[in-house]
Write a structure and sequence with these properties.
By secondary structure, this protein is an alpha/beta fold. The chain has twelve helices and eight strands. Keywords: Amino-acid biosynthesis, Aromatic amino acid biosynthesis, Chloroplast, Lyase, Plastid, Tryptophan biosynthesis.
Length: 269
């Protein structure tokens, strides 16, 4: 079992759920990303998802698309993300999952990309537009570098596709809580509870839930529901706080992010 699934399994054994914040690398600056990663680790994030900026991010909503544009305008590409990770690897304990799209990986070279992220301590990889037909090969490359490939399951996926994904997934799966793109929402898709139960009945795969989860109230509702999830991903809410950054208020932004993280943690205990 890879480290990502190990963390989820440990939380599950203790009847808890893992907190998984999402950040866009280099937004609003490399320095603030590093500070935020270290702060989230200290404030109890169990796993941290780090997005590589991309200009055609089809799964991302307006907040994260804007964050990617700002980061790209600041010259943040794969090389800069690798450099960022090399600076933070020894400073945090929470395992990092890289979130990126398939095209930048192919341009870089699949084997090279996986090898490079492993060298800077990355433990997980999410590629939302990875064709399921190519998953086996990518999983083998990831396994060689002790990286867990986390496959996506959507509320609109067919049963056959879901079962195919579950049969291929090396450990945990990412269950998308709403249709469409990421972003702050008031509720999750009604199909998600059915899907969660379907996954639990069919396999022993652990589930991380993401897309549209943005408040302690939502997290509390999920944990009190019949949803069988071992990790919750929150991205747009953290990105919204970071969008208020200016050169003069970095410490206040870090403190606000930390307070939000703690508030989420309180309802997850």
């Amino acid at each position: 079992m890879n480290l990502i699934s190990q963390v989820l399994q440990e939380k599950r054994k203790n009847s808890q759920c893992a907190l998984i914040p999402f950040l866009t690398a280099g937004y609003p600056s490399v320095e603030l990303t590093i500070e935020t990663l270290c702060m989230l680790d200290k404030r109890g994030a169990d796993i941290i998802e780090l997005g590589i900026p991309y200009s055609d991010a089809l799964a991302d909503g307006p907040l994260i698309q804007r964050a990617s544009k700002v980061a790209l305008d600041n010259g943040i590409y794969i090389d800069q993300v690798l450099d960022l990770l090399s600076k933070v690897e020894s400073r945090i304990d929470a395992p990092i999952i890289i979130f990126t799209y398939y095209n930048p990986i192919l341009v870089r070279g699949l084997s090279r990309f996986i090898r490079e992220i492993a060298q800077v301590g990355v433990k997980g990889l999410i590629v939302p537009d990875l064709p399921i037909e190519e998953a086996d090969y990518v999983i083998r490359l990831c396994d060689d570098c002790k990286i867990e490939l986390v496959l996506f399951i959507s509320p609109i996926s067919s049963k056959n596709r879901i079962n195919n994904i579950l049969s291929k997934a090396p450990g945990c799966v990412y269950l998308v809580s709403s249709t469409g793109v990421t972003g702050i929402r008031k509720s999750i898709n009604s199909e998600v509870s059915f899907l969660s139960n379907h996954i639990s009945l069919k396999t022993d795969k652990l589930v991380m839930l993401g897309f549209g989860i943005s408040s302690p109230t939502q997290v509390s509702h999920i944990l009190k529901s019949t949803l069988d999830v071992s990790g919750i991903v929150i991205g747009s809410a953290f990105t919204k706080i970071l969008s208020n950054y200016s050169n003069s208020n970095a410490s206040e932004i870090i403190e606000e992010l930390g307070s939000f993280c703690c508030n989420i943690q309180l309802v997850m205990m």
